[in-house]
Amino acid sequence: MWTRRTLLATATAASLAPLGRARAAAMPGVTATSIKIGNTNPHSGPASSYGAIANAEVAFFKMVNDQGGIGGRMIDFITLDDAYSPPKTVEQTRKLVEQEGVAFLFNSLGTPTQTAVRAYLNSRKVPQLFISTGADKWADPEHFPWTMGWQPSYRTEATIYAKYIQHEKPSGRIGVLYQNDDFGKDYLLGLKDGFGAAYDRMVIKEVSYETTDPTIDSQVVTLQSSGADVLVTAATPKWAAQTIRKAAELNWKPLHFMSNVSVSVGSVLKPAGLENAAGLITGAYLKDATDKRWDNDPGMQQWRQFMAKYMPGADLTDGNHVFGYGVSVTLMQVLKQCGDDLSRANIMKQAASLDNEEVPTLLPGIRVSTSATNFHPIRAMQLQRWTGSTWDLFGDVITA
Amino acid sequence: MIGFLHQTLSGLATGAIYAAVALALVMVYRATHHLNFAQGEMATFSTYIALSLIQAGAPYWVAFVLTALFSFVLGFALERLLLRRFAEAPGLTAVGVSIGLLLIFNALSGWLFGFTVKQFPSPFESGGVVLGGLVSAHEIGMVGVTLIVLLAVYAFFRFTPLGLAMRAAAANPASSRLVGIRVGRMLALGWGLAAVLGSIAGMMVAPVVFLDPNMMFGILLYAFAGALLGGIDNPAGAVIGGFAVGVIENLGGAYLVGTELKLTLALIIIAAVLVLRPAGLFGRIVVARV
Amino acid sequence: MNARRTALWLFGAALLVAPAFLMSGYRLFQLTSMAVYAVAILGLDIVTGYTGQVSLGHGAFYAIGAYTGAILMTQFGWPYWATLPAGGAAAALVGYAVGFPALRLTGPYLALVTYALAVAVPQILRARALESWTGGAQGIVVTAPDPPAFLPLSQDAYLYLFTLAVAALLFLLARNMLSGRQLRAMIAVRDHALAAEAAGIDIARVKTRAFAVSAGITGVAGALGAIVVQFVAPDSFAATLSIALFVGLVVGGSASLPGALAGAAFVQFVPNLAETVNKSAPGVIYGVLLVAALYLMPSGVAGALRRTLPARLRTSTSPGKATPLPNKGATIHVD
Hints:
Low-confidence stretches of chain B: none
Radius of gyration of chain B: 19 Å
CATH class of the largest domain in chain A: Alpha Beta
Structural class of chain A: alpha/beta
Low-confidence stretches of chain A: 1-24
Strand order of the largest sheet of chain A: 2-1-3-4-5
Mean pLDDT of chain B: 86
Helix content of chain A: 40-55%
Number of helices of chain A: 13
CATH class of chain B: Mainly Alpha
Order of helices and strands of chain B: HHHHHHHHHHHE
Helix content of chain B: over 70%
Distance between the termini of chain A: 71 Å
CATH topology of chain B: ABC transporter involved in vitamin B12 uptake, BtuC
Strand content of chain A: 15-25%
Oligomer: heterotrimer
Shape of chain B: globular
Order of helices and strands of chain A: HEHEHEHEEHEHHEHEHEHEHHHEE
CATH superfamily of the largest domain in chain A: Response regulator
Largest sheet of chain B: none
Number of strands of chain B: 1
Strand content of chain B: under 5%
Number of helices of chain B: 11
Shape of chain A: globular
């Protein structure tokens, strides 16, 4: 009896062993009790304010683990610093894939940095999932089936502005102020998409600035004296705040569109002066944490509870935390859909089969949808106007 | 033409920023004959201290004075405790230490105070529109403060025995020691005073460009260009140089090279001054004795 | 003695080649990056360590080499190995043009001009006039070479050995250049410019030539770096790169060839280490280590080793003194 049982156990073990090995090989980074996820983010250097996103994600996955993990597996989330330098991103990403053996990369940040590792990750068939950049080029499943963004692209956003301008102010003379890099230039492309042949007639002045410029007073003065009455600003927070304030100081009141990366009340509008920003228009897809409208919103309450428990003391006006929460919720949906098959191929397949998913921190009516040919998870926005004290949503949700 | 005038005026306003920082650079050069690459980051750090004091409830001018005092102690202590140990080291090491300080203060600001852009209050806010909004009340106030600081620096070096002793200690340490000047203490004093000027510049600049850990990164180069243009050992020259760089940068950006190469313009100013007139427009020519 | 020396050399070479067969791809990539940094720092050492002209802008020459290589490979179909001399030549040319005026000055001014150059590099690379070549802010994606068919090596191992071979070649070249008359002239310029001039050395020429050679070597490193990282973009060459190279030189030990290697190890591995010690402020640790290294090891890691190692193990590649003397010429003011 005793012998037989031993024999049986041995036999079972023997027959199971190759199966277990095969599964481990097919599901790198995944064990019966854990799943390893990697991320690179600028925790140091000039872009470190984005580090807040990764911090929110670390806290989010801690919460998930406290609630029992996903499908019985604990999430082991590793975020490494790349200081926004592409060579460092390559090194850290290779470390995550080859040394740490992560299942996939999630929400790594930056356009140049992620461009540097795109070929590597695709050739190794490692998902480069929901990366944190608004560049338009990520949705290219034909050439890069392992890469996918999350937020609406800058180009989509600019197209939405162009459509609104054409409708509301068809005779407007448009000035554009943009940061001279891939981020700013995507807005130019989006406006060109939206205006089409009318672009050259409508846009009368394009002015760029560099992130090393101490002030952009000169650029705003140039735009004002060009006679523009519509201003589209594609700027990061510091320069966005300067633009808003300088325009107010010049007593210049164009119809002002601001890129949605720079509409945080805490880090842009307050420094610029809340009244100075009155009338500012932007496209939104996330709920604003300072907006009283969402005080009783179940989604934002969920976020607030998370912040209170897992990120005590963190800045509640920093939109990066809302962003990090929203993208993490989306990932949980993907992992849930994966069930027990956490192979890289299936993770990518499920990421490309999101069906109108609701995310608690996204605006009502804005859902996450993907398909084998649609790698733009969010492509809708709603316009909102700053009243001087709050953001006021208006019009319909616009899909570009 | 109106546009030209506007660009010039707004250039003068930006130039005030460079002038304020250039003064601090001149101070440390006069006192030690070194360029301090960490000057900008130290000033940013001091500005954060000022903001913390204001947020803790201190009235603006109290915070201003306390920050200036703190900066003096910081600069003085850095020289006494750290830089003095490198006094006999070659120029390479001196630059290395100042780069090290740059890294430390930059990271420290981000670590302690975060990377989010912050607003910094101005004591000159009036709300009214000055000169059609081309120059804000704060910018006029900043020019005033810069000129007052300039006068104080000038008077200090020109009329006080301490100022004379500092100049002597920097120009010729060996002979200064012989006539009883405590050279080491003079150097520390120079660092302390330079840190004070830096902190004042920081507090004047922050309301315009907003406070973040990298606030001074771009400004420092323009300030160097201004200081060199005016003469690195001449406070008045540095202030004029700072204003000139602001105007050149604006006009050049708007009409000549385009806005994307403004910093390159500063680089060209620095190189041109060094090649054509190394002493700057108002500096004294230094001749090496063979 | 000679046999023993040969054995030592062979042992060293075996030690360097071994990782290609023993280490994982990621570790090899790190070692390859380190070898690239070592070449870049070697270039900087020639002008800053041996000739005493502080450059804070060698990231610019690295960028020129990298972009030259990437453009030649992607737009003109050059083979990867041929881009290295081209990248070096382009950087040397620009180095000569920058050095010619800047090197007539002494003291902190060259540091200032080169620092300004380092800060301005990304925006020059993004400039619209150059966009058709540089790809603007998007940068250029480069395809790394596959190992030749007859070599049974992984791509990482091949890249490592290739980089190693180039680095070894450049170190040997530098070692030969840094001997005899040439070296004495450079050190004379560094330690006592006036006396050197009095002795008939054409200071400006020595400095400018050293600067061009220095920029050229760092340019070769840049072209290598483009192949290894397989991507160039303006953000890859921010001022922090120039600062990192300078820090590597100072910590490793200036005017010392092994110092360049030690410095490269510092640049490559210390930021990662600092990150594990304190996630929120690796910069503080990096800066503190730099100042501490300057204080405790004024002549760098190489100098410290030189003093502690037994004499017969000392390398003969670092002539001159360990610590350069302060350069204090008397000055007078003329109103």
